[in-house]
Design brief:
Length: 350
């Protein structure tokens, strides 16, 4: 016998009087979910992030609300919360820094050679970093010193009045100028979004990345954070450096930065690296030279190897951490000078 309550009230609930928000109890899916799925949207239980990601994956055609660049940036923003400082930092070996006791002349040269606008400052080693200096502060200091000293100089001509750079003491130590600003210290595991918030609140656009022992592992700037969203930002100096990354020397050879990737090197030079049996972990021209010679090369050294016959690598610039610039030249064994033969044989064994 059927239950009258179930046959009555239950029939009404399963008929036209059913709650439209309820769905098939067997699947747990509401009619709203089925409707959204039919038009290509995520179910109502999906988060806003899921919905945005779904919309970005769809090919909207002519009526698409997002351009390709907007899609890319929105995807990058969605991934920003999962990005850590260690993912975007500049490695320690690539950090350009100066000691706190350098002279203003040395500091100006460092800014000129690196093209940076900010420079980390350290006491004894980079692990003992004390802050940073901005090139604008340096220029303001020099201009103020020149103007103050110029005001005490008696001049009779307007052409000689004003700023006198010859009166500035460029031998003065950076530590005596008060130009060193604080810098942030952050772990590599910090989310990039948290770093951005700290940079904004402290009005500091540079952070040194430290390990668990307090040593410096890398460096990250506000520009690095912005580039994770909008892509690489190239200024005038970046364009010049990239254009000079690997260029023909006009005599059948090339001048290459040590950080040029091997794929770009092979494409620009036409040199077949497959036969050289280069280790898989070698990625740059500097690494290639070190692999050929079996050690860190020094400035002025000429390297030849049987693994890449027909070419000579001349180290233009190097330090104790990496090879910075290399001159690649066609090598004719028949044309070598006698005093080169001994060194050639030594390098050929590498």
């Amino acid at each position: 016998m059927s239950d009258p309550q179930n046959s009555g009230a239950g029939g009404q609930e399963n008929g036209h009087g059913a709650d439209p928000r309820e769905g098939d109890s067997r699947s747990g899916e509401t009619w709203i979910d089925r409707l959204m799925s039919a038009v290509g949207l995520k179910p109502s239980t999906a988060t806003l992030r899921d919905t945005l990601e779904d919309l970005l994956e769809r090919d909207g055609g002519a009526d698409d609300s997002f351009t390709a660049d907007e899609r890319r940036m929105i995807r990058n923003i969605l991934r920003l919360g999962e990005t850590r400082v260690g993912d975007i930092m500049i490695q320690r070996a690539e950090i350009a820094a100066v000691a706190v006791d350098v002279s203003l002349t040395e500091l100006m040269i460092a800014f000129k050679e690196t093209g940076h606008s900010r420079m980390p400052i350290y006491r004894e080693t980079l692990d003992d970093a004390s802050g940073m200096v901005h090139i604008r502060d340096l220029m303001n200091h020099i201009a103020e010193e020149a103007a103050v000293r110029a005001s005490s100089i008696e001049t009779r001509s307007e052409e000689t009045a004003g700023i006198h750079l010859t009166q500035v003491d460029l031998g003065r130590r950076l530590s005596d100028t008060g130009l060193v600003r604080p810098v942030l210290f952050v772990p590599a595991s910090m989310p990039v979004t948290d770093l951005l918030a700290r940079m904004q609140s402290n009005r500091i656009q540079m952070a040194l990345v430290i390990d668990e022992y307090g040593g410096v592992d890398g460096l990250v700037s506000l520009e690095d954070v912005v580039e994770t969203v909008v892509g690489d930002i190239e200024d005038e100096h970046d364009i010049d450096e990239e254009g000079a990354a690997i260029v023909p020397n006009g005599t059948g050879g090339w001048i290459a930065d040590g950080l040029v990737e091997l794929e770009d090197f092979a494409e620009a030079t036409g040199i077949d690296l497959d036969a050289a049996d280069i280790p898989e972990d070698v990625e740059t021209v500097g690494g290639l030279v070190s692999a050929l010679v079996g050690r860190m090369a020094v400035s002025g050294e000429q390297i030849r190897s049987d693994r890449l016959p027909g070419y000579m690598f001349e180290i233009v610039a190097a330090d104790n951490r990496r090879i910075r610039r290399v001159h690649i030249l066609p090598d004719d064994p028949a044309g070598r000078r006698g005093d080169d033969k001994g060194r050639v044989g030594e390098m050929g064994a590498a």
